[in-house]
Each structure stands twice: as C-alpha cells, then as structure tokens.
Amino acid sequence: MSDWVETTLGEIAELSKDSWKVGDEQLPYIALEHIEERRLRLNGVGSSDEVISNKYRFNEKTFLFGKLRPYFRKLIKPTFSGICSTDIWVVKPKGNNDLDYLFYLFANQEFVDLSYTSSSGTRMPRADWNFMADFYWKIPASPYEQKAIAGVLSSLDDKIDLLHRQNKTLESLAQTLFRQWFIEEACDDWEEVNLSQLADITIGITPPRKEFHWFSKDNSDIKWISIKDLGDHGAYVLDTSEYLTS
Asked: For the chain, what are the domain ranges?
C-alpha cells in the first residue's frame, strides 16, 4: 500500500451546479424517489418533461448523493447524462482523485452518519456541504490505489446486486407455489377454519427501556429490533440499527 494522506473533503471533491432550466433540451430525470435506500441502485428514471423547476445537470463523470434526509443513504453513480433534483448533490472529483473511490467514500456509513449529524432542519434535514467540505479524511495518496480499492468494492456490489435479483426470483417462485398449493389447487374436502384455531397470537407490553433488567440478565448490550430492521420485504433481520445499553 502506498502512503495515505489526511485531507479535507473540499480538497478532493466539489459540487457541480451546472443548471438546467425549464424549456431546455429533454433529458432523463433522477429524483430522490428514483434512488433505492442503502442499495446504491436506481429503481427508475423520470423525464425532464415531468419537472416544472430548474434542476442540476449530471453526467458519467459525476455521482449523486441525496442530501435530504441523508440517513437514507441514497447514492448513485450514473452511466448516462441527465438532470436531478436540487435535493441531490452532484459531486465530481478534484485533481487526479478517482471518481469511483470518492463514490464509495460518500457511501461509507461513517460519512452518511456525519452528514446527518451536520444537517440543518428538523423535519426535513439536509446535509451541509460547507461543514462536510472542512472535515478531514484519510485517503490513498495514489489515484491508482484509489482505483484498485474502488474496483474491489464495485465487484462486491455487483455480486450483492446479483444475489438480490436471485432472491426476487426465488420470492416470486415461492408466491407462485403458495398460490398454486393453497388457493388454486385447494381441495373441496379441505376444512375452512379461523386462524385463531391454528395458532395463538400473543401481544405484550414493552417494558420501559430504562428498566434494563427486563432485557438482559448480565447487563450486556441487547440488539433492539424495530420495523426498519426487517429488510425490504419484512422477511428476515440482517442486523439492528439500535442497541439497548445498561
């Protein structure tokens, strides 16, 4: 590994504010709703015909970071030129710094958390570029090493994306089989019963969090599961975003 240097974000990256005005040429349009949360992927693309106010231009030499409610971690590295919402930063590298490396720096959870901590506004928090630009980060001095690191991360992202698509295929197959076995091919002699005859549904009252003895007998930290931890389809818990501590 080459030497790593400590530098401010403003020394290695900058915002592009190339404006597109209503009436200019037609272009693809990316709003925050087009970027998936935490997945670094698009779920769709709009058209400039749909917008009624000025926007920012982007291209393949930039990437996009959603500054509104930055804790959603909405980032995308586009492969085409277009326009985006003004609630999205259009970021480009300075000097010889690698675009892909900077993209993953911004995608780092530490960066996302810091951008939220520095955000202004309570109901609609927005990341503050001036604050972030003055913050120091350690990065590889060599752009070749930056590119190599980004290449590994990009390869892992591609594999993760493939697994997500495989999961969707399996979920679709499971839904098809469920419908076939329990609805379409249901036998006439099957008995119709209420769910309560098959299982007991129990609901309790969550004790106050300050009464930690309810949750842990040895005073160790406990993972706290909430709805947002249940994954995209509420099927399983990968990790929790919150812990209870004594």
From this structure: 4-155, 200-246
Note down pLDDT in tens along the chain; length 246 residues: 569 999 999 999 999 999 999 999 999 999 999 999 988 999 999 999 999 999 999 999 999 999 999 999 999 999 999 999 999 999 999 999 999 999 999 999 999 999 998 888 778 899 999 999 999 999 999 999 999 999 999 999 989 888 888 988 998 999 999 888 888 887 777 888 888 888 886 666 666 766 666 666 666 677 777 777 776 555 667 677 677 666
Q: Which helix or strand (DSSP H or E) is residue 6 part of?
A: strand 4-8
Q: At a CB cut-off of 8 Å and minimum separation 6, what does 109 contact?
A: 73
- Domain 4-155, CATH homologous superfamily name and number: DNA methylase specificity domains (3.90.220.20)
